[in-house]
């Protein structure tokens, strides 16, 4: 299900590896502020000021992004699905207020990362765009809004599954090799940064949503978490098999506090706009899954140390939890946002 964009536990790891040699349910104003706050939370914790200078002087050949609507730069515009954001008010903070297919008022967190890594503004482009060219594009998005690791999740909205996104990257690399040669393509992939942001739709669409009927009877949430985690690990191995060596993986966000979730699970169905509270059960699921992801990434990196694999966990959960619990610490804007969500 497409969701509004919000972009530590170990966040300093998320970009320190770069230095090695080698819904419509949230108002645009809220999304804009949260995107800024996310950036302020994440980037200062990714690397120190000295490291930032090293990154700016370091050659990062490419940036590849996979996942859902948090990082989809507009691929869904070019497929047959209702999960599109190519109309107002999306894109109102872009030049000329043009909707780009991003489920956001402006940039996604991956856009900020692309700029941070040295790519030009708005150079993070959808792979399926008709004007996409192998020769000029090195910051590429394969993500698709509404997608998940579970193919049943993507099928619900007829969007691009994670397995298909991996196929597209394989196709991209073959096209790249035909342009700059196989050795050049391999070197570019090895020195690239990969960012994977996915899984929340698996829980909201497939386990807790309409896709539940497709699961085996008696499937528990713990079992489904493990299933999604296995698919994540297989996806990472797929990237590694195609040459990836620097991969950042995002956990799921604090989705029990999404406005439409608060409304849908309200304890007062006769007045859902008055009785407002985050869903602690869903937030606990997110926290549990994120803990499993962190443990799995650590194990996977240790087992692949011999090939130089560097994995980083990217925490989108804790910063928003801190804002939800202590908005005053982060200024009056955060108090306003919390009150708008929970009022």
Automatic annotation (TrEMBL):
Identification of the protein by name: GDSL esterase/lipase
Family: Belongs to the 'GDSL' lipolytic enzyme family.
UniProt superkingdom: Eukaryota
Gene3D superfamilies: SGNH hydrolase (3.40.50.1110)
GO function term, MF aspect, one: hydrolase activity, acting on ester bonds
């Amino acid at each position: 299900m497409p969701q509004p964009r919000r972009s530590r536990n170990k966040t300093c790891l998320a970009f320190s590896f770069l230095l090695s040699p080698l819904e419509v349910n949230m108002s645009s104003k809220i999304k804009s502020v949260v995107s800024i706050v996310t950036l302020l939370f994440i980037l200062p914790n990714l690397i120190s000021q000295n490291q930032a200078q090293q990154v700016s002087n370091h050659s990062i050949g490419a940036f590849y992004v996979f996942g859902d609507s948090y990082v989809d730069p507009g691929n869904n515009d070019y497929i047959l699905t209702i999960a599109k954001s190519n109309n107002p008010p999306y894109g109102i903070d872009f030049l000329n207020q043009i909707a780009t297919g991003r489920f956001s008022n402006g940039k996604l967190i991956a856009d900020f990362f692309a700029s941070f890594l040295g790519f030009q503004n708005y150079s993070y482009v959808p792979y399926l765009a008709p004007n996409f060219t192998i020769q000029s594009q090195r910051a590429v998005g394969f993500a698709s809004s509404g997608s998940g690791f579970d193919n049943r999740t993507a099928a619900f909205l007829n969007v691009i599954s994670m397995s298909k996104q991996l196929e597209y990257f394989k196709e991209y690399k073959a096209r790249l090799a035909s342009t700059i040669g196989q050795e050049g393509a391999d070197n570019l992939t090895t020195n690239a940064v990969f960012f994977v942001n996915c899984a929340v739709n698996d829980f909201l669409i497939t386990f807790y949503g309409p896709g539940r009927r497709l699961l085996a009877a008696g499937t528990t949430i713990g079992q489904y978490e493990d299933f999604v985690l296995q698919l994540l690990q297989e996806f990472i191995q797929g990237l590694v098999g195609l040459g990836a060596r620097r991969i950042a993986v995002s956990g799921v966000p604090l989705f029990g506090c999404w406005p439409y979730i608060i409304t849908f699970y309200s304890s007062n169905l006769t007045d859902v706009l008055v009785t407002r509270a985050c869903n602690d059960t869903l937030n606990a699921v997110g926290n549990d899954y994120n803990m499993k992801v962190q443990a799995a990434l650590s194990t996977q990196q240790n087992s692949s140390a011999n090939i130089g694999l560097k994995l980083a966990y990217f925490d989108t959960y804790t910063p928003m939890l801190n804002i939800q619990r202590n908005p005053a610490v982060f200024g009056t804007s955060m108090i306003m946002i919390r009150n708008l969500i929970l009022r």
